[in-house]
């Protein structure tokens, strides 16, 4: 865990003295291209709520140097082609900042268009932008989350591992990343006993899971989200495959956990950024302070934050911090460079250092492993940052 201190977005917001009432000035508008309909809507709707709650805090503390913040949303329908069309329309207006896309497919579609600005914050951790580019990526990267998850399994002594991926481009990227993690020297005693593949449209993966079970793994990683992961979970129940399973944090939504309650694995592990930590003893004080503001904002509207909430929250405040420092007339290059040099910045996901980790600010030291608790109906943290098991972490329910 990083040992630096920072005022963080909310504390900084409270120190801003607006020169005019925020509601009296022209709004500062940030376009946001999001998947508000289609398969990605379950994430994007939560990200939109997060941006709106962040906006409320920003405007209550002076806005952007006196100008109220507004997000203008456009729906790409979870379609990369539509995302490109919308992005081209937005780029023609020459904004300094863009938020978009909201899932990895739409982020990948938009990123090649962002050659000379605006500063674009993709809300998917699955995008890996080029260092020094105008594109930034939210949260801890999927590769670092996989690193923490593998470390947790390794340190629990679960060294015979089975893997399962979708056969599309996203699954291929995930497979390459996880196998690169398992190939690291510290994981030399871990053995991949089998690797299974499936199509995201498959309604059954019984044959694949039968081969997984026959390989006698001690643990299992299935890297997919939404309906496909539900198909895998049902198949595990039907096969009697009761071993620790890890998956991506894209599945960390309360709606999914409720919908899948009847067939969730008993030992479901997910690596996540530090937003999920509720024990202040496991956090730096400045990060704990941001957690208080984050959870209070959700408590005020009777909601519980999940993965979509954190994907929008920190990017909103990082962009606001840049605008407040540079002024609302800042050019895209100035905003990019400002964020690129930002260090010691406390958010709900950890302490950001964009010099150390270009375009993201977070790394595996900001990742923890969680386990879903049906009794508590939440994700309970079972590791220290980087995936090292907590002494109290149980092997079985």
Task: Write structural notes for this entry.
The protein is α/β, with parallel strands linked by helices and 397 residues long. It is built from 12 helices and 14 strands. The strands form 3 sheets. A 7-stranded mixed sheet has the order 7-6-8-9-10-13-14, sandwiched between helices. Strand 13 (367-373) and strand 14 form a beta hairpin. Helix 1 (8-15) packs across helix 11 (307-326).
- Percent of residues in beta strands: 15-25%
- Low-confidence segments, given as residue ranges, are 1-7, 9-23
How many strand elements? 14
Structural class: alpha/beta
Topology readout:
Elements: H1 8-15, E1 28-34, H2 41-60, E2 69-75, H3 80-92, E3 97-100, H4 104-110, E4 119-122, E5 135-137, H5 142-155, E6 160-166, H6 169-182, E7 191-198, H7 206-214, E8 219-223, H8 227-239, E9 245-247, H9 254-259, E10 268-273, H10 285-300, H11 307-326, H12 332-340, E11 345-347, E12 350-352, E13 367-373, E14 378-381
Parallel strand pairs: 1-2, 1-3, 3-4, 4-5, 6-7, 6-8, 8-9, 9-10
Antiparallel strand pairs: 10-13, 11-12, 13-14
Helix pairs in contact: 1-10, 1-11, 2-11, 3-4, 5-6, 7-8, 11-12
């Amino acid at each position: 865990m990083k040992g630096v201190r920072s005022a963080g977005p909310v504390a900084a917001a409270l120190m801003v003295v607006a020169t005019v009432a925020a509601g009296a000035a022209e709004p500062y508008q940030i376009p946001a291209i999001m998947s508000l309909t289609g398969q990605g809507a379950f994430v994007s709707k939560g990200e939109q709520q997060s941006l709106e709650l962040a906006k409320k805090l920003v405007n209550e503390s002076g806005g952007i140097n006196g100008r109220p913040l507004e997000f203008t949303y456009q729906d790409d329908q979870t379609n990369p082609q539509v995302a490109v069309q919308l992005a081209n329309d937005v780029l023609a207006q020459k904004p300094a900042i863009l938020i978009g896309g909201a899932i990895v497919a739409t982020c990948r579609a938009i990123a090649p268009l962002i050659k000379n600005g605006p500063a674009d914050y993709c809300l998917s951790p699955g995008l890996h932008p080029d260092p020094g580019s105008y594109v930034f990526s939210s949260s801890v990267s999927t590769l670092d989350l996989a690193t923490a998850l593998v470390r947790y399994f390794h340190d629990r002594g679960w060294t015979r591992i089975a893997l399962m991926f979708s056969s599309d481009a996203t699954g291929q990227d995930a497979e390459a990343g996880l196998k690169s993690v398992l190939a690291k020297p510290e994981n030399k005693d871990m053995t991949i006993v089998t690797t299974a593949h499936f199509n995201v449209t498959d309604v059954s993966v019984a044959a694949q899971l039968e081969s997984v079970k026959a390989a006698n793994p001690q643990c299992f990683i299935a890297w997919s989200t939404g309906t496909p992961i539900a198909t895998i979970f049902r198949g595990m129940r039907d096969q009697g495959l009761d071993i620790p399973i890890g998956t991506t944090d894209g599945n960390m939504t309360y709606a999914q956990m409720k919908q899948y309650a009847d067939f969730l694995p008993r030992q479901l592990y997910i690596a996540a950024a530090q937003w999920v930590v509720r024990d202040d003893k496991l956090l730096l004080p400045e990060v704990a302070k941001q957690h208080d503001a984050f959870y209070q904002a959700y408590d005020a509207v009777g909601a519980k934050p999940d993965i979509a909430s954190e994907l929008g929250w920190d990017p909103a405040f990082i962009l606001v911090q840049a605008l407040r420092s540079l002024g609302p007339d800042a050019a895209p290059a100035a905003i990019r460079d400002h964020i690129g040099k930002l260090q010691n910045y406390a958010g709900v996901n950890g302490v950001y250092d964009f010099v150390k980790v270009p375009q993201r600010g977070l790394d595996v030291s900001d990742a923890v492993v969680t386990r879903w608790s049906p009794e508590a109906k939440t994700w309970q943290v079972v590791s220290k940052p980087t995936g090292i098991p907590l002494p109290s972490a149980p092997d079985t329910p």
